[in-house]
Amino acid sequence: MIANEQAQDAIAHNLANVNTTGYKQDIPCFSSFQSLLLQNSSQGHSAVGTLGNGGGVYKLATDYSTGAMQKTGNPLDVALSGDAFLEVQTPQGIRFTRDGSMTMNAQNQLVTVTGGAQVLDSSNRPITIPQGAKNITIGLDGQIKADGQSVATLGLAGISAADNATKVGDNMVTVPQVRPASAGSEVRQGFLETANTSIVGDMVSMIAVLRAYETDQKMLQTEDDATGKAVNDVAKL
């Protein structure tokens, strides 16, 4: 029942972020608890057999598959494909995000719309757009040009399930070891990546988990009733 509660929390969190740009869903992974060896102490601790302790959620695995591309037409919006993540500077240090919704702050620096974190270039430096630039283009390789002049190249890190990334809030992650984005990763200007969650799929999963929880609850109640009868009724006989 506790495992189903944890799974329900993960599904609810996915549903809550269905409109979060670049969000990567969490998938609960179940495992069985270690079995206990039952022994008969009246016969010299002879082995009776094993008793399973049920199952639990041992981790939440993040699904790093690419979400759908949604066209916005905003020149400062980018959608990333492959395993590429934007490198951004926060008060807590460098973080990584798939949220490519960007804007410019008062210093003409590229920052994320959510949180205002500075977007970094390939040398981990803030990206400043020249004052008064009218035509900003971002190539598939992340190269930024303002009125035809090269400004910087977006800093792109490669992150997948094998990189042991940790979610740290604000749709950002950290990784123990930073590596470049894999070949084939691209930056699409004027698009945003939607969350890779499915409302229908998550609702079906939520119903299935709820039914499993109710079944476990009824089994527990049946066992409790049987124990109660054994204690109260059988003793009278």
Assembly state of the chains shown: single chain
How many domains? The number is 2
Largest sheet: 4 strands, antiparallel
Shape: elongated
Distance between the termini: 35 Å
Question: What is this structure, in a nutshell?
Answer:
With 237 residues, the protein is α+β, with helices and mostly antiparallel strands. 21% of the residues lie in helices and 34% in strands. The protein folds into two domains: 78 residues, no CATH class; 124 residues, no CATH class.
Question: What would you say this structure looks like, in words?
Answer:
By secondary structure, this protein is an alpha+beta fold. It folds into 2 domains: 1-36 and 52-68 and 197-221, no CATH class; 70-193, no CATH class. 21% of the residues lie in helices and 34% in strands. The chain contains 2 helices and 19 strands. The strands form 8 sheets. Strands 7, 8, 11 and 15 form a 4-stranded antiparallel β-sheet that branches. A 3-stranded antiparallel β-sheet has the order 12-13-14, with no helix packed on it. A two-stranded antiparallel ribbon has the order 1-4. Strand 2 (36-40) and strand 3 form a beta hairpin. Helix 1 runs antiparallel to helix 2 (199-232). The chain is elongated, with a radius of gyration of 26 Å. The model has no long low-confidence stretch (mean pLDDT 90). It is found in: Bacterial flagellum basal body. Residues 188-231 form the Flagellar basal-body/hook protein C-terminal domain. Residues 79-146 form the Flagellar hook protein FlgE/F/G-like D1 domain.
